Amino acid sequence: MPIGIKYFEPSRGLPHNKNAEPSTQLLFYFPQNISELNKTFPKLEIVWEPILNRTTSASLFTQYRGAWSSLIASHYNSAVISDIIVITGLNSE
Q1: Is there a domain that residue 66 lies in?
Q2: Could you read off the pLDDT of 7-58 as tens digits, one per residue?
Q3: Range of the domain at 30
Q4: Contact, 50 vs 80, CB < 8 A?
Q5: How much is the pTM?
Q6: Pick from 4, 40, 3: which is nearest to 25 by CA?
Q7: Which pLDDT score, from 0 to 100, does residue 93 have?
Q8: Cα 62 to Cα 9, 57, 68, 80, 91, distances in angstroms
Q9: How confident is the model at residue 1 (pLDDT cuts 50, 70, 90)?
Q10: What is the sign of the dihedral through the CA atoms of 60, 63, 64 and 69?
Q11: Residue 2 lies in a domain
């Protein structure tokens, strides 16, 4: 069964490497504004190993406002997943 990903958010860089993307959050709801933040749960945090370069994903995030598409999927297609974390609410991160 395919998962209906609607939105993605690359993690911020690491303190010692701003271009690093250690993880990416995948959401099943595209929030229209900040008041809809609670509708984004549950979501998945994908942890990458090796850590990805954030430059391209940050550019794609900005260009497409975080909307998931086949272009975004192809960007992450060859990345290796180290872990998948289910985030169930604001305090579960």
Answers
A1: yes
A2: 999 998 888 999 999 999 999 988 888 888 888 899 999 999 999 999 999 9
A3: 7-92
A4: yes
A5: 0.86
A6: 40
A7: 52
A8: 10, 9, 12, 23, 26
A9: low
A10: negative
A11: no
User: Is 59 contained in some domain?
Assistant: yes
DSSP code string of the chain: ------EEEEPPPBTTBTTEEEEEEEESS--SSGGGGGGG-SEEEEEEEEEEEHHHHHHHHHHHTTB--HHHHHHHTTPPEEEEEEE-SGGG-
Q: In total, how many domains does the chain have?
A: 1
Cβ–Cβ under 8 Å, residues 21 and 52: yes
Residue 1 lies in a domain: no
